[in-house]
Amino acid sequence: xxxxxxxxxxxxxxxxxxxxxxxxxxxxxxxxxxxxxxxxxxxxxxxxxxxxxxxxxxxxxxxxxxxxxxxxxxxxxxxxxxxxxxxxxxxxxxxxxxxxxxxxxxxxx
Length: 109
Fold this sequence. Notes:
Distance between the termini: 60 Å
CATH class: Alpha Beta
CATH architecture: 2-Layer Sandwich
Order of helices and strands: HHHHHEEHHE
Oligomer: single chain
Mean pLDDT: 79
CATH superfamily: K homology (KH) domain
CATH topology: GMP Synthetase, Chain A, domain 3
């Protein structure tokens, strides 16, 4: 009985959020369809060149299952650059999800 209590007293892991736990399972099975997956893997999806100058500020999924994405530029000068790269950003996200997942991209300064 004492060994059972010792196992409960010591944790070998930290609690996880549901999104991170299911995101890992979804990745194993190859399904990607959530905003949490997008935010968790932002640098991998977008690439280091764009992720260095951006922060993902908001993700909203519409009724048609497309994402409206809000991106914050790290400096006002980068906002103009990012506005020219909207199609490239959308293509990278769509490629990651495997379907046309992006509805609209908004760039904030």
